[in-house]
Amino acid sequence: MARDIDRLVDAVVARVTQEMATPTRDAVRPTVTPRVGGAGSGAGGVAPVAGQASAAGQPRPDLARVIDHTLLKPDATRDDLRKLCSEAMTWRFFSVCVNSVNVPFCRQQLTGSTVSVCAVVGFPLGAMSPNAKAFETSEAIRAGADEIDMVINVGALKSGDYALVLDDIARVVGAAQGRVVKVILETSMLSRDEKVIACALSKAAGASFVKTSTGFGGGGATAEDIALMRGVVGPELGVKASGGVRTAGDADRMIAVGATRVGASSSVAIVSGGAGSSGY
Q1: Which end of the chain has the least Cβ crowding within 10 Å, N or C?
Q2: Is 195 noted as a catalytic residue in this protein?
């Protein structure tokens, strides 16, 4: 099994390396029209067209339905969460993204709205057993989570233990019972080949999305990483840009190269034409 996975990963890395070396790749980049939901999400709504731009400071409510309105700070209070949910309903963001312990409270706050609840799992380090992540996923689903954002086992990936990484993701996908699962790669910690491998394993394990960052790992989303991730997973999976997306211009740049979802704590600033601050 492990040898089969290694051969698959080697083949994917070789293919992507060859494609990236093709002289016409940047000149003839296929346009990606973002989907609001990932594969199998069944999410409705209309996503903004890739590359849509607006003058600086102009409101961009069209971006709302690709945004996961995010609050993951450990000191988040009930008042903070109540405000998060109120903003999400007002601006009609796709979801609120919160720590799993806060799912029941947010689920109650959002009753009767179209806003989904997304729970992070194995957050922010990803350094726990597959069983632990699967259990946290099951508990989050039981509490009312619609989507799961899990952190990949970065140490296992960098050690070349691809069988463990695959099993880790697959167990969360199984525990999610058909809900959308996004795999957080923590791209700032990975080499280019490791990003390719992580995307290939996420796709093989049945994930719905790959996602750039936790926002706690010292880096964030870049257009280069989004383009690479989109190139590996193809049109079948969603790609989420997360970490450092603070303006409508930032979101537009990510969408233009293949992002179909944006995670941000500065969501209101993005759609209202302002500029957000750092921090989740």
Answers
A1: N
A2: no
Q: Is 126 inside any structural domain?
A: yes
CATH assignment of the domain containing 151: 3.20.20.70
Q: Which amino acid is at 52?
A: Q
Domain assignment present for residue 141? The answer is yes
Identity of the residue numbered 44: G
β-strands 67-71, 238-242: how paired? unpaired
- Tens digits of per-residue pLDDT, 127-176? 999 999 999 999 999 999 999 999 999 999 999 999 999 999 999 999 99
Are the CB atoms for 121 and 100 separated by under 8 Å? yes
- The boundaries of the domain holding residue 163 are 2-31+73-235
Active site annotation includes 133: no
Q: Is 36 part of any domain?
A: no
Instruction: Describe the crossing of helices 130-143 and 162-175 by its angle, rounded to 10 degrees.
Output: 20
- Catalytic site residue from 133, 146, 240, 250: 240
